[in-house]
Write a structure and sequence with these properties.
The chain is mainly α and about 475 residues long. Helix 1 runs antiparallel to helix 3, helix 3 runs antiparallel to helix 4 and helix 5 runs antiparallel to helix 6. The longest helix has about 40 residues. Bound molecules: fe (ii) ion (FE2) (2 copies). One fe (ii) ion binds next to helix 5 and helix 6.
Length: about 475
């Protein structure tokens, strides 16, 4: 059922765009606006070309092609995973019915909203990361940054395709708005909080790709289950690209921890600030920040909207097919976090209204695996220090714990105690200034900044000292 991707077209695609002139024209008129946005809000470092992966097919084998390409000429395309004509809806009140190829009128507004919220995060991260090229620790890292950037651009295309193809004039207007909102803008910010935060340095970038991109992975995982088949197929393919973004975050933090541990051991001290690396307590503070703002992205602990999305079949659970319950959940309950008489507690709710909590818990377990991995690096360096995820109530702005202040260990604090102590747990101006001071670019082939270890492997079988990026 898959169409061969057509690269002779202005917009590479496997959705037979050529056969739908109206849609093709609409997308071709959005394309110059996208390129203007890329020029004005995308990466600021001038480059001649970058060794990039371009999606060229959706099959299991050889879905991507690697070559040096000028970034502006990147072939942002529209690729949906292969269609399974026998696909059935896997959950909710329509469970067992054929998946939808068109948007049912009654769910139009909700589906459009879900697509816009997902779509808004994609260009937001490009905007957040636009200045990082100026301080890249190596050409390898620079290339990875740009790879993530062009793929987030492609993810925007993926959502804009759905808006144009299935949501008429309103969809086209929303597609324009996706280019007009900007990360951190005072008058028209991005929709979700974490996507208006700055990513001013590379430690933030690795933490962002570990924790915040990982939220994206989980959101895409729930949309991949959607009864609306084009959305499901789009998200399935996006998840393939997301794996690389996760790798950049995971191994990026690995390499920062590894280098810090090395310098601690060599100099037999914890106090490495003056030794040109990032002290472990500062790494912990960045972790605390990015983890807590990413937890907020999952929304309230209970939500009737999400219950309705599930029942309608719009948005499933992580790993829905592997769950062993009835996939309707109408009679089930679950425990969710709650604030009861000012104390951190749990309360039982209908399973359907607790689905944000269900997804957040899957995410938390996944985040813990990264922390375990970083602690193994510390252990094998012979150090007793360990990193950890802060308490789920720490630094929350959304959900049951938003009204209280809590230490990373879960101790409830007065506003005054919080104000006095939060600098121990979240990056201070001094910490940020130190990290920024280390961010001197290294653009020489095979060289790397002193605050980070080199990667174990290069990209696509190339060595670390490959000429991944040609600057202009
Ligand atoms: Fe993305
Ligand atoms: Fe991503």
């Amino acid at each position: 059922m898959t169409m061969a991707p057509d690269y002779t077209e202005k917009i590479p695609n496997n959705v037979s765009l050529r056969e739908d002139r109206r849609l093709q024209r609409a997308l071709e008129s959005w394309q110059p606006d996208f390129l203007d946005w890329w020029e004005s809000m995308g990466p600021t470092l001038p480059t001649r070309d970058v060794y990039l992966r371009t999606a060229i097919n959706v099959g299991r084998e050889g879905w991507a092609h690697f070559a040096h390409v000028p970034m502006r000429d990147y072939r942002w395309g529209i690729f949906l995973a292969e269609r399974d004509p026998a696909r059935m809806i896997g959950f909710g009140e329509h469970k067992g019915e054929p998946a939808w190829q068109k948007v049912p009128g009654e769910y139009r507004a909700d589906l459009q909203r879900l697509i816009v919220i997902q779509g808004d995060t994609e260009p937001a991260s490009v905007e957040q990361q636009r200045n990082l090229g100026a301080s890249a620790p190596s050409l390898y890292d620079l290339r990875n940054l740009f790879q993530v950037n062009v793929e987030e651009g492609r993810h925007l295309w993926a959502m804009v395709y759905l808006l144009h193809a299935y949501f008429g004039r309103e969809g086209r207007e929303e597609a324009e708005e996706l280019l007009h909102r900007n990360s951190g803008s005072a008058d028209s910010p991005r929709i979700l909080g974490a996507f208006n935060e700055e990513t001013p340095d590379w430690l933030s970038f690795y933490m962002f790709t570990y924790f915040t991109d990982r939220d994206g992975k989980y959101q895409l995982g729930t949309l991949k289950e959607s009864a609306f088949d084009p959305l499901s197929r789009t998200c399935e393919f996006m998840l393939k690209e997301e794996a690389h973004h996760m790798m950049v975050g995971t191994t990026g933090v690995d390499r920062v921890v590894e280098r810090t541990a090395q310098v601690m051991v060599e100099n037999d001290t914890d106090d490495v600030t003056a030794l040109g690396v990032i002290p472990l307590p500062v790494i912990q503070k960045y972790l605390n920040f990015h983890y807590s703002v990413s937890l907020d992205l999952f929304g309230g602990d209970t939500s009737t909207n999400v219950a309705n999305y599930y029942t309608a079949g719009l948005k499933g659970r992580w790993n829905e097919p592997r769950r062993t319950d009835d996939h309707r959940l109408t009679d089930d309950g679950m425990l969710v976090d709650a604030l009861i008489e000012g104390q951190i507690a749990q309360t039982e709710v209908a399973a359907l209204t607790g689905l944000n909590t269900d997804l957040r818990r899957e995410y938390i377990a996944d985040c813990q695996s990264g922390v375990n991995r970083w602690n193994k690096i510390l252990a094998s360096a012979g150090l007793p220090h360990r990193l950890k995820l802060p308490h789920v109530a720490f630094n929350r702005k959304v959900g049951a714990f938003a009204p209280i202040e809590v230490s990373p260990d879960g101790e409830i604090l007065s506003a005054a105690e919080w104000a006095a102590r939060k600098g121990q747990w979240l990056p201070t101006d001094v910490d940020k200034t130190h990290v920024l001071s280390l961010m001197q670019p290294v653009y020489e082939r095979g060289k790397i900044a002193a605050w980070i270890a080199p990667p174990r492997n290069g990209i696509n079988g190339k060595p670390f000292d490959y000429d991944y990026v040609h600057l202009s």
